[in-house]
Amino acid sequence: MGNLIHLCFSASARGSLKYAVSTNIIYGNKVIGFYDDLSNGPIYEKVDLGDRINWCKKLIKEYRVEYIQCLRENYYKFNKKLSKITSEDTVYFWVSNNASELVNLMYTLEKLSLPLENMYISNVSEVTYNQGLINEFTPRLVGEVSPDRFPEFITTKKKMEKGTYTSLLDNWNKIKEQRGKLRVYEDGQVITVDEDYFDNQILKYTPKEFRKCVRTVGETLGYSEKPISDNYIFLRIQQLIKNGDIEYKGDFNIMRQMEIKISKK
Length: 265
What we know:
Helices cover 41% and strands 17% of the residues. It is α/β, with parallel strands linked by helices.
């Protein structure tokens, strides 16, 4: 009998799942996490680590050396752990309706050789807490789920059907062919969009008077229906500054040391 492996796509999700498994909230033998956010940056015909590192150097201005080293190690460990999964093992993929986790799932499926009957998907966005109440909540990310909630998601897991598997890989191949830099989840698919997709939202939460850039980033993320990384939003703010749409003062390369406001044109 093989192992039951929980596989997820963020550090926060892995931390929660490891806690849930280690405390017997849910059963499992291993938890594997992949952390690179493939919803943004180059993937082209394949996911090239060198291309991803160059993108992250552009995206991550703070703590670059440490982040890049962690990224290298995560790719190495992730690929090594995937190679050790056997046809006797069962894998639960933990995702939600957002581009980051779904694109990472597609990337993983392309690399993983496992019978369909051994693969299951738990989509946390298919469960809504407190329906009809003022605090109704549907998770946008696996990392938003507290460990004690995982048992209810286990019961909603779905076996990987051939149609689902084929659709995910077709979606993945289409994304690679489009060679874009930004992908979002829309109408049941991950689609490639222009790099300025979030710019109007950023400008909406940029004030007329100078204030901390991090507040605009936080509000853009908090009110967006589509999850995206804070680093990508900051990259777009830098571009909007270059375009003349936003004014800034402080350190151009450090989010927490920059203040911004709408430009007076």
